[in-house]
Design brief:
By secondary structure, the protein is α/β, with parallel strands linked by helices. The chain has 2 domains: about 180 residues, 3-Layer(aba) Sandwich (Rossmann fold), CATH 3.40.50.1980; about 170 residues, Nitrogenase molybdenum iron protein domain (Rossmann fold). Helix content is about 40%, strand content about 15%. The strands form 5 sheets. A 5-stranded mixed β-sheet has the order 11-9-13-14-15. Helix 14 packs antiparallel against helix 15. It starts with a helix and ends in a 6-residue tail after the last strand.
């Protein structure tokens, strides 16, 4: 209920400016009240803390006047891959990562009309706004775990600030249509049970790193053995727990694959006791976390999980084609080939990899 009230407040406050040259009052993802310029005056923007993903969803990345250092690197983030040429000549205004270090003087020189930010600390956004004397708008995918309602609200917020409301509404409609393609919902007795491991959390992690209430598994109709711990979101399990549960299906995040391959080399007997490994029913997912979440990857992995868990229910589904359809929906370009060039493809797990 509290979440719905927050979203309602967002809707009420969006676009409440009176005249074409007046500022508009919005409420951002942290509940902060921010005055932003009218749409036609939002021509120079900064997008920090991975918020450029939202700007890219709106097709407004050509308005960005500076970037974080991480956005010059080849990270496994769709918006970074898509914008590689665009950002090549843009100045670096901030050191990104867990500890953000902005160059306030450089940012002020660039005169941004609006600064977007993904953050978990309201004080950081307030500090940025005070020092820059420019509106700072926090957007979110839901923290610490992905939250679809918060994600949608931030898409609408970004679209409103940038004057891209139609695109924002079209994107949300497209995302809401995705689960309708995964129609099979098994009875509890027929539900495939699985474990997902190797999930990134403040860096790459091994088999013990998992998540309860994991969004792609819920969307795919796949049971999650980690839910039995009663813990929500990311957590680490004891390896003996996984042996006891011993699910017939295992998924591994590609970011954690090298650590798991090395652990299997050192402790082969442990992995031989896992039936999913023995039966060659262990699979590699695309990594959904690299400097915050990649929401489009969560949806892509949901389709791969559904296809893997219930192949007879989705005989005509091509997860690779579905991946590019989702990349097109979010970012306007097919990106699967580029993405897997960095992280490897969706597919079976091989523990004997070099």
């Amino acid at each position: 209920m509290a979440k719905k009230i927050v979203l309602l407040l967002w809707a009420i406050l969006l676009g409440t400016g009176a005249g074409a040259d007046d500022g508009r009052i919005i409420r951002d993802a942290m509940g902060r009240t921010v005055e932003v310029p009218p749409v036609h005056k939002v021509q120079r923007i900064l997008a920090l803390g991975s918020s450029m993903a939202f700007v890219t969803y709106m097709g407004a990345q050509d308005r960005v006047v500076g970037v974080e250092d991480l956005e010059k690197d080849e990270l496994s983030k769709p918006y970074i891959m898509l914008n590689k040429k665009l950002v090549a000549d843009l100045p670096v205004v901030c050191k990104g990562g867990a500890v953000r270090i902005p160059n306030f003087e450089r940012i002020i020189e660039l005169k941004p009309d609006v600064v977007f930010l993904v953050s978990v600390d309201p004080a950081e956004a307030d500090n940025f706004q005070r020092k820059l004397r420019a509106p700072v708008v926090v957007v979110s995918q839901g923290q610490p775990a992905f939250d679809e309602e918060i994600f949608f609200a931030s898409i609408l917020l970004t679209g409103d600030v940038l004057g891209c409301t139609q695109r924002a509404e079209e994107l949300i409609a497209g995302i809401k249509a995705l689960p309708k393609k995964l129609t099979y919902r098994p009875d509890p007795a027929d539900q495939a049970m699985a474990y997902v491991g190797g999930l990134s959390y403040r860096g790459n992690q091994d088999l013990k790193s998992t998540s309860g209430n994991f969004f792609p598994m819920i969307m795919a109709g796949v049971g999650n053995v980690a839910d039995s711990t009663g813990r929500q979101g990311h957590h680490f399990i004891n390896k003996e727990f996984l042996l006891q549960a011993n699910p017939p299906l295992i998924f591994i995040d590609a970011n954690g694959l090298p650590l798991i391959v090395e652990d299997a080399r050192i402790n082969p007997k442990y992995y031989q006791r896992l039936q999913a490994i023995q039966n060659k029913n262990a699979w590699v997912l695309l990594p959904h976390t690299s400097y915050w979440n990649n929401p489009e990857i969560l949806y892509i992995n949901a389709f791969f999980m559904a296809k893997t868990a219930y192949p007879e229910k989705y005989p005509d589904m091509d997860p690779v084609a579905m991946a590019d359809e989702i990349f097109m929906l979010f970012n306007g370009a097919p990106q699967y080939e580029d993405f897997v060039r960095l992280v490897g493809p969706l597919g079976p797990l091989f523990l004997d990899k070099d």
